[in-house]
Design brief:
heterodimer, A: 134 residues, 4-stranded parallel β-sheet, 3 helices, 4 strands, 27% helix, 17% strand, B: 410 residues, mainly alpha, two-stranded antiparallel sheet, 16 helices, 3% strand
Chain lengths: 134, 410
Amino acid sequence: MSDAKKTIIGFVCERSLPLEYMLDGGKALLDDPDTKVVIVPCSGMVKPTFLETALAKGADATFVCGCAIGDCHYRTGNLMIRERLEGKRSPKLRKTTDRRKVGMFFVTMKDRTAFLAALAEFKAGLDARPAQEE
Amino acid sequence: MYRKFLRLTKSLTVSFEKVVNFLTTQEHNPLYFHGALPLYIFWFLIFSGILLWMYYIPTLDRAWSSVNYISALPVPGDPVNEAAGIPYGAVVRGIHRWGAAGMMITTILHMLRVYFTDRHRSWRWLPWVTGVALLAFVLFVGLTGYLLVWDARAYYIVVATQRLLEAVPVAGAALSRFLVGGDGITDYTLTRFLFFHVGGAVLIFLLVWMHFIRLKQPVATPSRATNFMVLGFILVAAGTLPAINITRELLQKYAADPRIAAQALYVASDAPAQIGTLVDTIRYDAWYMFPYWLVQNVGVTWTWLILGGATLLLCVAPFYPKDRRANIAEVIEAKCTGCTFCSQDCPFEAITMVDRAPGSKFKQIAVVQAARCSECGICVGACPFQAIELPELHSKTLEADLLDLVKKGA
């Protein structure tokens, strides 16, 4: 499992990361071609079902990236998605979803390095785990 | 060009905040509570103000003395306070004084951050314009606070304000009379200033309510760590530089006390006002007294033009540059169950729930008010029934994109 190519689907708020410098021309991250990105206007737009669909259709992991907590351009989008994924706000992430495969990053457009480090850590966490019971 | 400028300012602001995040962590970054900070400091002003009010006497001959009595500096021969007045009175006055500066500074910081990060435009015009009114009110209430001390500077400000008002066409003379409550300055004048000060502070609350009216979850409380930090700042400032009255006489008397001598230039009020004797120059408090600096340096007409022009610019700022608004959320009537999730989550109160016709399957339907919609899609994320969508970014398209990416990756 650990050496296998992974597919990671991320939903990234267009205001959080400097995506114009981070994509390979398509939708894969330059620094991490395994990671594909769906751009949304605000992380609050992400429905938990999107993440569930991604996992169900074969992605190895999925994540949401929004602005720094306290600094959402639309005031509360990042708080909302965080609460939805934590199961505190409807619609919630289904309880049967493997939460280890669902990442959350909240960064500013100047935090590219921090984001990549957190993403790498998230991926390493996927590898470190025993094989998932499917 | 202007958009580029806004992008640059945003980039610089974010870079600066990244440094602060490093020092304070994201959760306690005071810059993320920029709007809540002035409101938080306002409570200090209200409570310290009530304490000061208990001892304040709004008459021409007692105002300065009563303030001085609060500050607990003994003045020989003064009818009100021969001996020292209230313990820690100067510190309470210092909290009021430094809190006022803090409120003005954080208000300006709040305004700059909102402007620099491009959060003042379009659907946010109402909070912005009421914010401009709030700024004017904070300035007004702060200035009237200086008048209550009734020192030489207060008298200077009254005279300068009368000059400003008299320059207003037609209503000028009446406005000037209204300011002082009659043809000349009397005891009633100070009662009126006290009313302006306290009444203005009450009106700030009304404006704050309007400021919040279109925000679903306004950030009105800073984080606890930030609260303690601000509390610490104010207490340290008020404790080390308490607000007092300094006159030449007092300075001579207390020359040996370096604490008092050091304050002569900063937080001290002047000698009592002498009606008819105008000082040549006053100490300008940068946060509040720039209008009088303008009066002194460029004249009455230019002062009006500059202040009026600045206000006008601030008021029209949210409407330029115009945005292309093609992605306003749309409700799909057949799917909406009236569950209210979108309306609860919309950060700008753009979605209202409206009753459906009797006999309908569901009781209510969501309705989007286009002018308030920020096109952020938070409602899309909130809707469990795919009943609300952004026309240019349908969640079906997003899901198709997603499947495409999974396939390519596999």
